[in-house]
Design goal:
The complex is a heterodimer. Chain A folds into 2 domains: about 100 residues, no CATH class; about 110 residues, Rossmann fold (3-Layer(aba) Sandwich). Helices cover about 50% and strands about 10% of the residues of chain A. Chain A is built from 12 helices and 6 strands. A 4-stranded parallel β-sheet of chain A has the order 4-3-5-6, sandwiched between helices. Chain A has a two-stranded parallel ribbon with strand order 1-2. In chain A, helix 11 links the parallel strand 5 and strand 6. In chain A, helix 3 packs across helix 4 and helix 4 packs antiparallel against helix 5. The longest helix of chain A has 18 residues. Chain B is α/β, with parallel strands linked by helices. In chain B, about 50% of the residues lie in helices and about 10% in strands. Chain B is built from 22 helices and 13 strands. In chain B, strands 1-10-7-4-2-3 form a 6-stranded parallel β-sheet, with helices on both faces. A 4-stranded mixed β-sheet of chain B has the order 8-5-6-9, sandwiched between helices. In chain B, helix 3 crosses helix 12, helix 9 crosses helix 10 and helix 16 packs across helix 18. The N and C termini of chain B lie far apart (about 55 Å). The chains are: A alpha/beta, B alpha/beta. Chains A and B meet through helix 2, helix 3, helix 7, helix 9 and helix 10 of A and helix 1, helix 15, helix 17, helix 18 and helix 19 of B.
């Protein structure tokens, strides 16, 4: 919010929005997901652009809504999805591609490492966008994450259905984060951050997670506290 | 799913994975092996300027072929027959095994030499032959290791990937009389012992059995690619050669081989070209086997073909690149999948072949990270098929499971703004006794215990974003 308004974007938050349906679709509940997709499309139809600070939600909408709509056989939904999905953007796509900026005037004097979420990396192909935004943050000490492209093990209900395997993957991700020497691990997906942050907290690792948007929102006066109000992903 | 009655359900992946994850030697062996091959594959693929175009060709040729598989198969049968071979059709594994056993018995052979073949693993041919008193000797080094150990392959390409050289040394000392007492664990020394063990048996064998990587419909040529030369021996030394091949391995023309012989070695072993490529067309008097049988097996493949989303799995050329890049496979190994085909391709191919009811946990054995799709040389969108199969699993398990009820309840909450907001408020009240400094550390009940056993859970914020927004900030 802070970042977008700082850049002169008028932000609306349609209060009827809830969940994009990714949880349901990824677990095998297509009809439920289709209902939520319909709700999503109706809610956001009037908006010029739809931005989400979650790469996996955007990947759900852009990658899977067309198929869900096709399966429903409802031509109205098929058309509405086709009309809306090109306007649904992940935050760094909006900032870098649409607004043409990498320097959002942030200040964050901490050692940070970036975990590219699988959906952001492979489905949306966000590439260097998040890193370019981070590099432009004043005061930041951006350090490389070893094995960055490897999955953190979240995977939605995978994290509970296959908890043991998920934790084994997570443990290696944690080792990489600790090896990087960072004090903050950031990402564009709240779900990865919940997984990574949950384990860092459990292990009293002395490293915290922050969404990329929180870092971009940080300014001189926020620097000590770290997290400005209205953390972007957690309260969706 | 026509196979529901024929296949016993596999043991659930999560339970099998839990056991595998606790095996520290297995974890170390797999980590070392998969990371090594990953780096090499990346380098081998990076050398090819038009790799993406090559992948696209690999996808397109197979897709087109599968669309007209019936006519291509008849063309293959005609070409093989014209070249002096005999084609047999097997509906399932049992029929395939019966055909092969009858052929071997007709020649009075007590032992056959075998080149590595996943399809005969799928049909459990060796056990079927054993029931007829026929010993099938595996001649691929890793497959021999597996056979001596009495195990099943844990990897499509490297069946003994879960074993390290020290373990192989001990196995050879125990089971091969040719092994010297001072056998070292040097791979060359280990291979030499296996070589001594196999060489005489090759020369004595009257019947060889192989799989096939490709068969060219227009010429009737069968192709096997390998690294060791043992398949070359199996397919050239014995008088009788029996090749078992899934019907999807067919390619229409000789030219198509060009694409796959580039894609396969780089994806599989990170080699520019594999050391041995054997191609044979029927029989030739005085040169190689004088009798050639090609057994074409369905075993569920036509029902996969009928699945619009799932059929892309039949494009698979068994390179195993998806296994090597998979973060799940890297940690659990292949045995946890409980099927011939493991890793990401196994998680889709097995349920497709045997029916989701018989393998309901495999489509969930993935975090959907997408590394498999990125690596696949024929562009099988494995995450897409996994999601498709998950819908089938939910459909098969019915609406009354605890998960289905919970998911419907959540969908109702997500479907109504007021309910959603009320649920947030109720959640905040319920979590109050558990939350400390924004985190829930206590063990939560039911499936959530899987989360809290190893991770804290962020508590709901005291003020939700929408409340903050609604109060005009």
């Amino acid at each position: 919010m802070e970042v977008l308004e700082r850049l002169g974007v008028t932000v609306e938050f349609p209060a009827t929005q809830t969940c994009c349906g990714q949880l349901h679709f990824n677990t095998g509940y297509g009809p439920e997901a289709a209902r939520l997709a319909r709700r999503f499309v109706e809610t956001f139809a009037p908006s010029e652009l739809v931005v989400s600070p979650s790469a996996s939600c955007v990947a759900m909408v852009r990658g899977h809504y067309p198929r869900l709509a096709a399966l429903s056989g409802d031509q109205g939904l098929i058309d509405a999805v086709a009309e809306l999905t090109p306007r649904v953007l992940e935050l760094t796509e909006l900032l870098v591609d649409r607004l043409g900026t990498t320097d959002v005037g942030a200040y964050f004097p901490h050692r940070v490492t970036y975990h590219p979420s699988c959906h952001g990396l492979r489905m949306l192909e966000l590439g260097e966008r998040p890193l370019n935004l981070l590099r432009a943050v004043r005061g930041i000490d951006l350090v490389e994450l070893p094995g960055a492209s490897e999955c953190c093990g979240f995977g939605g209900t995978f994290a509970v259905k296959n908890a043991d395997t998920s934790v084994a993957m997570l443990t290696d991700k944690l080792r990489a984060i600790l090896d990087s020497g960072a004090e903050v691990c950031t990402a564009t997906d709240s779900s990865c951050l919940m997984q990574i942050g949950g384990a860092l907290s459990r292990q009293r690792a002395g490293v915290r997670t922050m969404h990329l948007a929180e870092i971009l929102a940080s300014r001189e006066q926020h620097a000590a506290g770290g997290s400005p109000s209205g953390s972007a992903g957690a309260s969706r | 799913m026509s196979h529901d009655m024929e296949h016993p359900p596999l043991s659930p992946f999560p339970a099998a994975a839990r056991l595998a994850l606790a095996d520290t030697q297995l974890r170390a062996n797999l980590r070392h092996a998969t990371h090594t091959i990953r780096e090499k594959r990346d380098a081998a693929v990076a050398e090819v300027d038009d790799w993406q175009a090559l992948r696209e060709s690999g996808r397109a040729i197979k897709e087109r072929t599968l669309r007209h598989l019936d006519s291509h198969l008849l063309e293959l049968e005609a070409s093989v027959t014209r070249a002096g071979g005999t084609v047999h059709w097997a509906r399932d594994g049992d029929e395939c095994n019966r055909i092969v056993a009858d052929l071997v018995r007709a020649h009075g052979a007590r032992e056959v030499v075998k080149a590595k073949s996943l399809t005969t693993e799928e049909t459990r041919l060796n056990a079927a032959l054993a029931r007829h008193g026929i010993h099938a000797l595996e001649t691929d080094l890793a497959q021999l290791i597996i056979q001596l150990a009495g195990e099943t392959p844990s990897h499509i390409l490297v069946p003994a990937i879960h074993k390290n050289r020290a373990e192989v040394r001990e196995l050879f000392l125990r089971s091969l009389p040719q092994a010297p007492a001072d056998l070292s664990d040097d791979p060359r020394a280990l291979a030499e012992v296996a070589r001594l063990h196999l060489r005489e048996r090759f020369l004595a064998a009257g019947v060889g059995i192989s799989g096939a990587n490709f068969a060219v419909a227009e010429t009737g040529t069968v192709a096997v690619v390998e690294s060791e030369g043992n398949a070359r021996m199996c397919t050239t030394l014995p008088d009788v050669l029996i090749t078992v091949m899934g019907i999807e391995k067919l390619i229409p023309t000789w030219e198509d081989l060009e694409v796959y012989l580039q894609l396969l070695p780089r994806s599989a072993t990170a080699e520019r070209m594999n050391p041995y490529t054997s191609l044979w067309t029927g029989v030739r008097p005085g040169d190689g086997p004088q009798e050639f049988h090609l057994v074409l097996i369905d075993n569920g493949r036509t029902s996969v073909l009928a699945d619009e989303v799932g059929r892309q799995a039949l494009r698979c050329i068994r390179c195993s690149a998806c296994l090597n890049v998979c973060p799940v496979y890297e940690r659990t190994g292949g045995h946890a999948y409980g099927s011939t085909y493991s890793g990401p391709i196994g998680a889709i191919l097995t349920p497709l072949l045997v029916g989701v009811r018989n393998a309901p946990t495999l489509p969930y054995a993935s975090s959907l990270c997408g590394a498999c799709y990125e690596a696949c040389p024929v562009k099988i969108n494995i995450p897409e098929v996994l999601l498709h199969l998950r819908q089938q699993v939910v459909g098969a398990e019915g609406p009354r499971t605890r998960e289905a009820v919970a998911m419907r309840l959540l969908a109702v909450l997500f479907g109504h703004r007021q309910l959603y907001e009320r649920a947030q408020r109720v959640g905040r009240l319920l979590q109050a006794p558990l939350a400390r400094r924004g985190m829930i550390r206590a063990r939560l009940p039911g499936p959530l215990a899987g989360w809290t056993d190893a991770r804290d859970l962020p508590a709901l914020a005291a003020q939700s974003f929408r409340e903050w927004w609604g109060r005009g900030r």
